[in-house]
């Protein structure tokens, strides 16, 4: 999946199987995975807020006779769904056998990116085995700087300055996100410590009450037996 340049190590999960992927590179980062006819594959991306993410994918169908993956038919489509850390749907759209999806994060945290085929005809092709090549870019890596330079008529120096400004902005977002994570961790730690404290107090009170009850019970027992 995408490297740490977007937000750290990556967690990827498949339904029903669990898939762990951690790929990191300085430039483009990509992977490919296999899915069945009705199988869905989901990836967890840790993304700062207000960060644009671009994903490119293409699919290949397994040919049993030739024993090789061939380009998928035009009728085959992929459904892409993206959910933010709160479970809200950021993107839900149908694409073709090859496409590109874009979304912007508005909440920092783990975003779930799911892909699955929308076709029920895959069973005609050797059990519907499909290979999906996925490449995701985020932050300044998602910008097409040659296109920006041509559109805004920027010189090489101006374009380099633009890249540096975008990198600084992305670093600032990463720092803000790390502070956000630190704050959440601190609140969780304080809540846990408070619960442990109250539980210790409750245990102490229970022990004291149990001791008082035992003493009264023993006193009553000795008085009944006329030992005291």
UniProtKB/TrEMBL annotation:
Entry's localization field: Endoplasmic reticulum membrane; Membrane
InterPro entries membership: Emp24-like, GOLD_dom
Signal peptide range: 1-30
Main location (coarse class): endoplasmic reticulum
Pfam families noted in UniProt: EMP24_GP25L (PF01105)
TM helices/strands, residue ranges: 196-215
Domain GOLD positions: 40-161
Bilayer topology annotation: Single-pass type I membrane protein
Cellular-component GO terms for this entry: endoplasmic reticulum membrane
Keywords carried by this UniProt record: Endoplasmic reticulum, Membrane, Signal, Transmembrane, Transmembrane helix
UniProt family annotation: Belongs to the EMP24/GP25L family.
UniProt-recorded name of the protein: NPCL1 protein
Source species of the chain: Crocuta crocuta (Spotted hyena)
Taxonomic lineage: Eukaryota, Metazoa, Chordata, Craniata, Vertebrata
Name of the encoding gene: Npc1l1
